[in-house]
Structure prediction request, 185 residues.
Amino acid sequence: MLSQFAASQTVDLAINQPTARGLQDYLRQSQRIVYTLFNRDQLQVLGDDVYRFEMRPLQFFSLQLRPIVDLAVWTDEAGILQIQSRDCQLRGLDLLAARFQLDLEGELLAESSHHLTGEARLKVEVQMPPLLRLTPRPMLEAAGNALLKGVLLTIRQQIQRRLVEDYLVWSQESFCSSALPPQSN
Prediction:
């Protein structure tokens, strides 16, 4: 039985603390943002703007799953930070790994110098193993959609907490480094 799950999450965030530099400049720091949103011990750099993210184990009914997602993260010409999955592996259950596909797309946009909006969409398609085929489809779908919503909610909380903190630190660092007089040799 092929099952599909989906979730989306939005963020609309005003940063009320005055800063020396705006969000537009900050969103161009895609590598810094990746390390702010995701724990360093879960990330591996694969190339320019591409990272492998090893998620913490997820529980789905009696199954423990560990997705490993290759993410491309970049800022486009319009200044919008883009996040897109490129590949996914599943550790934990070989029966699912053969027919498992994960698609993540997201963006963060500076609406103004102190207002951030964004949206993330997560979809999973998976061939259910025999032990879950007797579970009613509505129950599987509700559990799968709730699991994905929880993953996106965690990312949203990282944006609301860690990204804002890092933005304020970055803005202060940028202001201090630009305020220093040039060194003479």
About this structure: The mean pLDDT is 86.
